[in-house]
Amino acid sequence: MLFLARMDVNFPTDMDPEVMADFQAQEKEYSADLQNRGIMKAIWRVVGEYANYSVYDVDDHDELQSIFQGFPMFKYMDVKVTPLAKHPNALSYYLRED
Amino acid sequence: MLFLARMDVNFPTDMDPEVMADFQAQEKEYSADLQNRGIMKAIWRVVGEYANYSVYDVDDHDELQSIFQGFPMFKYMDVKVTPLAKHPNALSYYLRED
Amino acid sequence: MLFLARMDVNFPTDMDPEVMADFQAQEKEYSADLQNRGIMKAIWRVVGEYANYSVYDVDDHDELQSIFQGFPMFKYMDVKVTPLAKHPNALSYYLRED
Amino acid sequence: MLFLARMDVNFPTDMDPEVMADFQAQEKEYSADLQNRGIMKAIWRVVGEYANYSVYDVDDHDELQSIFQGFPMFKYMDVKVTPLAKHPNALSYYLRED
Amino acid sequence: MLFLARMDVNFPTDMDPEVMADFQAQEKEYSADLQNRGIMKAIWRVVGEYANYSVYDVDDHDELQSIFQGFPMFKYMDVKVTPLAKHPNALSYYLRED
Amino acid sequence: MLFLARMDVNFPTDMDPEVMADFQAQEKEYSADLQNRGIMKAIWRVVGEYANYSVYDVDDHDELQSIFQGFPMFKYMDVKVTPLAKHPNALSYYLRED
Amino acid sequence: MLFLARMDVNFPTDMDPEVMADFQAQEKEYSADLQNRGIMKAIWRVVGEYANYSVYDVDDHDELQSIFQGFPMFKYMDVKVTPLAKHPNALSYYLRED
Amino acid sequence: MLFLARMDVNFPTDMDPEVMADFQAQEKEYSADLQNRGIMKAIWRVVGEYANYSVYDVDDHDELQSIFQGFPMFKYMDVKVTPLAKHPNALSYYLRED
Amino acid sequence: MLFLARMDVNFPTDMDPEVMADFQAQEKEYSADLQNRGIMKAIWRVVGEYANYSVYDVDDHDELQSIFQGFPMFKYMDVKVTPLAKHPNALSYYLRED
Amino acid sequence: MLFLARMDVNFPTDMDPEVMADFQAQEKEYSADLQNRGIMKAIWRVVGEYANYSVYDVDDHDELQSIFQGFPMFKYMDVKVTPLAKHPNALSYYLRED
């Protein structure tokens, strides 16, 4: 099943730049792993904001919850999740690659 | 470029069922065409709501606007558009097929 | 998996009382069936409002969407869905009967 | 009588991990006790958020208020309470166990 | 137990003045009865709005729900209910008469 | 004239417990005095929240403003005031004692 | 005492222009009378909207409520009232004429 | 031209009382000067809040912006500005003195 | 002085297409005239919505209000106006042509 | 293509004035460069707020995102972006110079 998430990152404005860079590196690695395992189907930056829309394919809410809690930057994020069903007009459930 | 849209449909509750079915058939055809032309990359139903999230790949705001205005049910829809940029953690800009 | 829904009913104030009663009778039957099949785990009235909170146990978003669309009063309802995961402090995932 | 609560936890992002773990352990114990006493009928995690929906069965607002104030993490929580009545379509007031 | 309700009335602007007067007369009678039975402890007009704040003393959510549904103008009202507990600073739970 | 106020208290989560207890003791004394002088007609706790609804009977906005500013915890409070008029359905302007 | 009101007018878009003109003429007369009696101290149009901010000087909420209900267009208006106190920095309570 | 402003003051709760008193004294002087120069036509306290509604008469947005930025407490204020036009029902554009 | 307006158009969904086309033709003419007179400096379509952002250069609120009220579709529009001042970083007050 | 942005700046109230002045100087330089390169077509101050509306002309969301992230004060800003299309009533897509 697919889920759409909007994630807003709220770092303290006085965070040490190295600490921030470290968080971002860990996040990138974690995110790549989710993509390689076919769990995170897409992630996009919301233009102008420190936020993303991302799409997840999981079979279970508990699995999804543990994926979110595993994000290295989870405690700085505000996450809103929308469950998605197949749309009657969709030619395929997943996005079509370019 | 990609854009995320959330579209909420507000039909009058007293709309004739045949009129509604006709609108939906036209909408399905229009939507299929956008998918076949590679413009609409995905469309999902928001669970529980007469609403969708959909993803568009166009080069230009005027083209996108004319696509939205072309939806047969446009006058019954409330559309909110979010411009999307490539995310630094994304392995690819587009969603990955199953 | 469990989902919490809040459903608000918006009948036109000039709806014929018999039509309304008929809708409500159909809704009651549909709702009882969902409960008997173990899909709807609970439904409560929000005090003071023509609204409910209800809990669903389904394996799949498409199944859940077709359940919502099957409600006889669906076109008069505003539905908001929240996916629920097991809470680390819960002794059991489901509610405990009295 | 039943009450639905949504509780959002807002820990300071710089809270010492041991302090946090201690709060969570106390909370878990408190929560288990409420469940064992038949007061807290259910508690679920809102997917993606440090938040829960939980259901309480108490006879009295003062009792409910003292239960909320007793949560070890109460001062970090934002709580919204909705009083629930029996729904005319409900086969039973309480949730049905699995 | 006490509950605070805010009720907003939304009559259609083209309602026949006699129909409206009839609704209001029924409402007044119903409201007086609730006051005489000690259920409605207070009702005030929100200045400038067709709305009230009112206070109810009932033992049970089902009783409260049936009281609200009994209001002759119920289908034209938007009702929001807040459960009230005794305040530690209150000299008495109820309002003090003049 | 009556006014309804909703007051939300926002203490810093790291406030010293003795400082907090001292504030609360002062607040209780101040609040008792207002009740004894017939100014504060009622105060209730909003269940689950560090908030109250309270009712004031004063002749003048300047007097009311100075009452609010006199609350020992005023700088930690968010106050919203609603002016109340006599309701045509009210048997008496004030709440009825138990 | 002074009160600030924001009033938004919501006429049906299909109202007969003569009916509308008649309402507006009555409203103008009523408004002039309130100004001549020193009750309405000011009224301004919110630029771009069919709305006003207006200032009232009355001794009593019941009087203010009956003034609002007396507006010929009252049932088409959404009114929000804010009680105003003397500001410590104000050289005079009332506005200064040009 | 007239403008209505709502200004909310947000002082840190741990501000030194002398620093606060100094800010308030400067603000009072600044405000008196604006009133004496005929720029600030009125200022009122919103009852219960550390906020004001105030009315300005200036010929130009740049002048108004520099007036706002000149407030000694500007960086602690949240300001919302509404442009006001003459109302067709107003007997005079300005408020009438008592 | 410049003002930014956001205008949302809300036509009834059952408006006769010829009536709508006539409104739109009148609106286009009115809008062209405002542009030719140097009053409307820009107008853009909000992508996906029947709405625009537009920029006005007028000396006076009364003039601006009469411009808005002159829009043939005014009664179907929801207009929100923001006064704009010169920005310290702007090389020129007006937009720069391509 | 054009984009409208609203940017709100949230500096900590205890920021060192020299640090702030340095940020503002860098921002001004960055902003001037964007204007000279024809990317930022306009920037205006929202009267009364530490906020701007600005207009950007870029061909691509990734370019726009990197422009926003390049603002020296980016981490203190809350940015909301609206994609703009040509309006059918516009005599030209861009604003007209004075």
Describe the structure in your own words.
10 copies of one chain form a homodecamer. Chain A is an alpha+beta fold and 98 residues long. Chain A has a single domain, classed as Alpha-Beta Plaits. Chain A contains 2 helices and 4 strands. At the A-B interface, α1, β2, β3 and β4 of A face α1, β2, β3 and β4 of B.
Annotation keywords:
homodecamer, 98 residues, alpha+beta, Alpha-Beta Plaits, four-stranded antiparallel sheet, 2 helices, 4 strands, 31% helix, MLI_dom (chains A, B, C, D, E, F, G, H, I, J), muconolactone delta-isomerase activity (chains A, B, C, D, E, F, G, H, I, J), EC 5.3.3.4 (chains A, B, C, D, E, F, G, H, I, J)
Largest interface, C-beta closer than 8 angstroms, per-chain residues: A-B, 39 and 39 residues
CATH class of chain A: Alpha Beta
User: What is the 3D form of chain A?
Assistant: elongated
Whole-number tally of structural domains of chain A: 1
Which oligomeric state applies? homodecamer
How much of the residues of chain A is beta strand, in percent? 25-35%
Report the major sheet of chain A: 4 strands, antiparallel
Quick synopsis:
10 copies of one chain form a homodecamer. Chain A contains 2 helices and 4 strands; from the N terminus they run E-H-E-E-H-E.
